[in-house]
Design a protein that fits this description.
- Strand 21, helix 16 and strand 22 form a beta-alpha-beta unit.
- By secondary structure, the chain is α/β, with parallel strands linked by helices.
- It is globular, with a radius of gyration of 24 Å.
- A 6-stranded mixed sheet has the order 1-2-3-4-5-6. A 6-stranded mixed sheet has the order 7-8-9-10-11-12. A 5-stranded parallel sheet has the order 13-17-16-14-15.
Length: 463
């Protein structure tokens, strides 16, 4: 028996490959499905089932393409109503994969169709629970993403989850390994551990939502308190996962077309495309195509794209590091951004060589920042970290302006005023500055390395 977790850090998402004998199953696959097909072929196995724990909101699943490529049925739990051919399983229905069995457990709460899959070995002993977004390590799935579906509120969904956890999950054996769909960094929960699996017994001891003495009212309050607004792209991903989508090979072929600087400029002018620069923050600061937005590929790329680029149908032109064009288009497609229309051939170097205009961002060291603050204690500072990060320690005169809400709050800033901008490590501050620069805010100074580097200078008093 093989159980392999295929974890994608930028999405904090876990897909699973399970195999017994010459039969395999895939649980919650990512959109690019060739690796799963190649793995099964290398292992001499046929993919028999594609199990979906629910209609995912934070990424586009590969279930449709994988089903077409392999002929394997796509299995959902009760109440799911996808627009494509699928198999809607029954609660407690058993599926055979080689010598092992997989039992569908209907576990409504995160969504109404949410289901877990309990794997038992050839002797019938339960060994693993693929818990989707029902149970995370250290947390449970947020109950607000599917609210208003059929008039259901987040409190009602949380109540369903309370019952689900206590009647379907907590009675299972303590030695079962829990394999969730997400880990720390996902927007599908609020308190997830950095660990990506654990025994159910340890979760019963350590997970706040599984406290044995917890009342339903306490559970509902704790689960629904402190939730950040869900990213705007979530409903579109749910729709794509329900209704289907363009084949990813077509999306990649279209998005990776190389355009000369002249053609790139023409395409930008004619289509009004968003210019997305995926290079490192300091490379962007040194030189970039005017009005481009920086979201670095070497970070939490897809979630920030989904949170900040609100029109998923808008055309996108890409500026990438050479050789990373396909990676960028693929990672955009994972969260439903299928409208990339080309990449700048030769990158910014070719743009400059063609005599095109470039822009830059002033980026200073934390020591230079400290000097500026010493010289003028009244300088304007924007801390673009999340509220909980800000509350854990910040420069006393800094204003909290989380990147998450930039589209709603940017109008509060004065275009004629200068601001020093920092985050935790330098990634988010450059995103923040690039978005504002593209909208006419040019008096922005980036603090390299963010709060981590600021603390290291020992020149700042935080509160």
């Amino acid at each position: 028996m093989i159980i392999e977790q295929i974890y994608t850090g930028c999405l904090a998402q876990g897909a699973y490959y399970i195999q017994s004998g010459n039969e395999a199953a895939i649980i919650d696959p990512l959109r690019e499905v060739k690796p799963y097909i190649a793995k099964a072929k290398a292992n001499g196995a046929t993919i028999k089932y594609i199990f979906e724990t629910h209609f995912h909101a934070d990424f586009v699943s590969g279930h449709v393409d994988l089903g077409k490529a392999t002929g394997a049925p796509i299995v959902y739990g009760p109440t799911a109503k996808p627009s494509f051919d699928s198999y809607i399983g029954k609660d407690n229905e058993v599926f055979k994969v080689g010598d092992i069995t997989v039992t569908l457990l209907h576990t409504p709460g995160h969504t109404m169709e949410s289901s877990c899959y309990l794997l038992s070995d050839a002797d019938g002993t339960p060994k693993a629970l693929f818990s989707g977004d029902t149970l995370f390590i250290g947390d449970v799935g947020r109950p607000d993403l599917a609210q208003n579906m059929g008039g259901t509120s987040k409190e009602q969904l949380a109540g369903l989850m309370f019952t689900t956890l206590r009647n379907r999950i907590m009675p299972l054996n303590d030695d079962i390994i829990v394999y969730p769909a997400h880990g720390a960094g996902s927007a599908c929960g609020k308190n997830m551990s950095k660990e990506t699996s654990d025994t159910l017994g340890r979760q019963k001891q350590n997970n706040y939502a599984l406290r044995a003495d917890m009342t339903q009212e306490e559970f509902i309050k704790e689960v629904t308190t402190g939730l950040m607004p869900p990213p705007a792209y979530f409903p579109i991903n749910v729709m794509m996962n329900k209704e289907g989508y363009e084949n990813i090979d077509v999306v990649v072929q279209h998005g990776t077309r190389l355009l000369s600087p002249d053609l790139f400029e023409t395409a930008a002018n004619e289509t009004g495309a968003l210019l997305l620069d995926t290079r490192k923050a300091q490379d962007f600061a040194a030189a970039h195509v005017p009005n481009s937005i920086n979201i670095g590929i070497d970070g939490s790329f897809a979630p920030w794209v989904g949170a900040l680029l609100l029109d998923m149908k808008h055309p996108v032109l890409l500026i990438t590091d050479e050789g990373r064009e396909e990676e960028v288009v693929t990672r955009l497609a994972r969260v439903g951004y299928d409208n990339a229309i080309g990449c700048l051939e030769g990158g910014v170097a070719a743009w400059k060589a063609a005599g095109k205009e470039v822009d830059a961002v002033v980026s200073i060291t934390p020591d230079s920042f400290a000097d500026a603050l010493d010289a003028d204690g009244g300088i304007a500072i924007l801390d673009v970290r999340k509220p909980n990060e800000y509350n854990s320690g910040h420069i006393p005169t800094a204003e909290s302006m989380p990147l998450d809400f930039i589209n709603d709050t940017m109008n509060q800033l004065d275009k004629d005023k200068g601001y020093y901008v920092h985050c935790q490590g330098g990634y988010r501050s450059m995103i923040f500055i690039s978005i504002l620069k593209a909208r006419g805010y040019h008096n922005l100074i980036d603090v390299q390395g963010g709060m981590g580097a600021i603390k290291a200078t020992n020149r700042f008093t935080l509160q």
